[in-house]
Design goal:
The protein is α+β, with helices and mostly antiparallel strands. The protein has six helices and 15 strands. The strands form four sheets. It has a six-stranded antiparallel beta sheet.
Length: about 300
C-alpha cells in the first residue's frame, strides 16, 4: 500500500514542467474512484458519485502519470467550502466580495494508485499517442481550463424535458476536466478514442419550462449583492446543522427549510437564483467518448 508520504512526494503542481517524453508513446486511461473516498466514501459509494482523472501509461518504460482536478494536498477538507463562499465586505465599493475557499487545482501524480481508495475504474481509451502531442496538450489545455473554470462548481441546471443545459452554463468539477480534456485531445490534437464507455457524473437542478427561468444576479448591483450574501448565510446555517450527513441531506432537499427550493447557483463566474419544486439530482450515465463533444 502506498504511504501518504510517498503520495505527497510524487504529487506535482508545476503544470509547466515536462512530464511526457517526446520520443515515447502513451496509452490514455479514464479513471474513476468514489468521490472524496477517504472522507465520505461510505456515502458517495452509495450515491454512485465518483471522482475522475486521466491516466497515462508510457508504453516504452511502463511509467505512469495521472492528471486530475482535485483538492490541493495541503488543503484541510471542509465540505461547507464547496457550498458557499466567504462574503467579505469591501469598504471601497460598499459591496461584498465573494471568495471561495475550496482549494481545488490541477495536480499531476506519477502513479496510478490502486488498493484502498485507489482508482477502481481504469479504462483504456486510446493507445499509441506521441509524447510530443501530449506535452503540447498538457500545456495548452491546462492553461485554457484554468482560465475558463477557476472556481469549483458542482451543480448545473438542466431542463427536464430534453436534458438541455440552462443557457449552456457548465459546471466545473473533475468529470468536466476529464470530458473537456478528451474533447481537446480529439478535436485539436487528432487523438482517436477506441469507443469504450467512460462514466461522467452530473450533479444538477432539474428545471421545468413552465416555471420562471433562473434569474441572473449581478454582484455589482447592491440589491443583488446583498441577496447573494443573505442566501449563502442561510446555506451556511443549514450546512452546519446537517454537516454529519451533508450530501444526502442536500440531495433529498432536507438541506433547505422551505418545501420549495430557493437556490443560489454559481456557474462560470456568475450567480443565478432559482425556485423549483424539484430536488437536486445526481445523474450518472456512461457516455461513449468516440466523439467526446457529443452529448
Amino acid at each position: 500500500m502506498i504511504s501518504l508520504i510517498f503520495v505527497l512526494q510524487n504529487t506535482y503542481k508545476d503544470l509547466n514542467a515536462t512530464y511526457f517524453k517526446a520520443d515515447h508513446m502513451y496509452q490514455i486511461r479514464a479513471l474513476e474512484i468514489p468521490m472524496l473516498c477517504d472522507e465520505l466514501g461510505s456515502i458517495t459509494r452509495l450515491l454512485n458519485a465518483t471522482h475522475a482523472g486521466l491516466g497515462f501509461i508510457d508504453m516504452n518504460d511502463s511509467s505512469e502519470l495521472v492528471f486530475e482536478y482535485t483538492t490541493d494536498p495541503d488543503y484541510i477538507f471542509n465540505p461547507i467550502d464547496f457550498l458557499r463562499p466567504h462574503a467579505i465586505f469591501n469598504e471601497s465599493t460598499g459591496l461584498f466580495d465573494f471568495i471561495w475557499d475550496a482549494s481545488v487545482t490541477i495536480l499531476v501524480q506519477d502513479k496510478i494508485k490502486t488498493g484502498k481508495c485507489g482508482w477502481e475504474k481504469n479504462i483504456i481509451v486510446a493507445s499509441g499517442i506521441s509524447g510530443i502531442i501530449l506535452d503540447t496538450w498538457q500545456r495548452e489545455y491546462v492553461q485554457w481550463f484554468q482560465e475558463q473554470f477557476h472556481t469549483y462548481s458542482m451543480q448545473e441546471m438542466w431542463y427536464s424535458d430534453n436534458l438541455e443545459r440552462f443557457d449552456d452554463k457548465h459546471g466545473n468539477q473533475c468529470h468536466d476536466f476529464v470530458w473537456w480534456g478528451m474533447q481537446s485531445l480529439q478535436n485539436t490534437y487528432g487523438v482517436i478514442f477506441n469507443g469504450k464507455e467512460v462514466g461522467r457524473d452530473y450533479l444538477y437542478y432539474r428545471l421545468n419550462r413552465s416555471e420562471p427561468a433562473p434569474r441572473y444576479l449581478n454582484v455589482s448591483d447592491p440589491v443583488d449583492n446583498q441577496f447573494i450574501k443573505e442566501m449563502y448565510d442561510k446555506y451556511t446555517k443549514a450546512a452546519l446543522q446537517y454537516k454529519d450527513n451533508l450530501i444526502s441531506k442536500w440531495k433529498s432537499g432536507e438541506f433547505f427549510e422551505e418545501n420549495e427550493l430557493k437556490v443560489i447557483n454559481h456557474l462560470q463566474h456568475q450567480y443565478y437564483y432559482m425556485e423549483t419544486n424539484e430536488r437536486l439530482f445526481l445523474w450518472y450515465e456512461a457516455k461513449t467518448h468516440i466523439v467526446p463533444g457529443d452529448e
